[in-house]
Amino acid sequence: MVSKKKKTVSRHTTESEEGRHSFEIVGYSLKKGIGVDEFVESATFAVGGYDWCIRFYPDGKGDGAKDYISVYLELLTKDCAVRAAYDLRLVNLATGLPKSVYSETTHRMFNSEDSSKFAPHYATFMHRSQLEMEASGYIKDDRLTIECFVTVVVQESMASNTVKAHELIKVPPSDILENFGELLEKGEGADVTFVVGGEKIAAHKIVLAARSSVFKAELYGQMKEKRARRVTVEDM
Predict the structure, then answer these.
(1) CB-based contact 86:149 (threshold 8 Å)
(2) Residues 98, 35 within the same domain
(3) Is 104 exposed, middle or buried (CB count within 10 Å of its CB: 0-12, 13-18, 19+)?
(4) In a shared domain, residues 114 and 203
(5) What sequence ranges are listed for the domain MATH (predicted)?
(6) Do 154 and 176 lie in a common domain?
(7) What is the pTM of this model?
(8) What is the pLDDT of residues 151-170, one digit of tens each?
């Protein structure tokens, strides 16, 4: 009985989409004093097929954060749950370079129906005194810029199939003549030497035997030499 070989293969694929949004607050000093839990928000931006925005609380969210600014990423799309990672940054307006203040690099679940639609889960984003230090560069010409990078898992799929035995073998390109030519030129693995007109040529017995019945008889047959390591060709 001949047994048939087969192999089953499955592959789980996860794809993501990245996006960045910059939220510029012009007239920062006029926003201060609007009160705890009061906020301004960015325009809606889309990443991975979902709508998002940035919330900024100049006087903090909650009494415990009244000396801080609070910043949140919010999922706006209704009736959905999505896995995403994010990075909330403040831009140094003197250099133009953003600095990460809070990030989650592991994709976590955002659910539009509960508080998990907001990130992060705490209100003390940055102390207001640190934000307003001239050396920080975060406030310039009464402007503040918040950046948010979002990476959304957009697709997860599973595929499986049966692979035939011959499909498991990766067949090399058909350049065997070039390979034999390189063996002859480099002499790698040579096990016999021909002397022709005083010139020595390294060769491979098994290749010669496969190509010529005369060489096969001389190298492997009854007429083979005891060592068959050196063959002198006369009359050439």
Answers:
(1) yes
(2) yes
(3) middle
(4) no
(5) 18-150
(6) no
(7) 0.64
(8) 999 987 777 766 555 555 56
